[in-house]
Design a protein that fits this description.
17% strand, 274 residues, 58% helix, 7 helices
Amino acid sequence: MKKREIYSLTKEKLGKIDETDALFDNDLLNNQDATSYYIQLAQKKITLATLESSYADKVNKTEKALTHYVDSLFSPLGFQVRLQKEILQITFQNAQEKLIKKPIIVYKTSGEMTHPLELSSGTWSTEKTVKQLTKEQSTITAEQEDKQYSFLVLRRSTFEVVNINWIVFKELALLLFNSTLILLALLFLFYRTYQNLKQQQKKISQLHDAVDNISHELKTPIATLKVALKTIQKQPDPTILPLWNVKWNVWKTLYNPCMKVTKQMQTSPLPLIK
């Protein structure tokens, strides 16, 4: 999303560049001059190499100024932007002939593009006569003057934000840092909670073991007391009373700690863990 936002802003600023500005050295860029060259190419008066060389000369003349202008637009934002416009195809429609074999660069900023994105594209159609384009008539017949030359030109502009990844990283660094801190805090809380749960589980396990042991130990004195009571009821025996007293003390010794634990659990019960 951040990249789309940066690309959208870049397109908006680049879209305001006016090709009629003197910055571009308009020869070969405005439609009339360009059409004149295309007619000469179609008439074989110049070669494709000559046309490519003419455009290359214009690129060299405008590259430094264009680079400075584009940098002035994006330096305050911290963007490093490259711009390029090229002619993809020139079709001489009279003969349905393609006049160029590879794209021709019309203008560009310094540096090569590695991952260009399309800024704009379109076709330009022109239909002119030699008479409409030149006043030199000494070597041109009337028939040649009035002949219509029709061309279809496909053009495309591309751009690249060279440091896009660094821009995104800088703007999202604080968010990434805060997210990392929150993640570490959550992991720490999870660890402490896990340790506390283990301790509580251990205490509950010990409590269960104690209760099991106490209940087991209580069975013996209770059973003894019950037998002694029945014996006294049937036939009093002086030896049974001391035994009864001993078992009573044992039962009381086991009972009192159990009651203390029960009271503690009532005041601050331990969490149940399955």
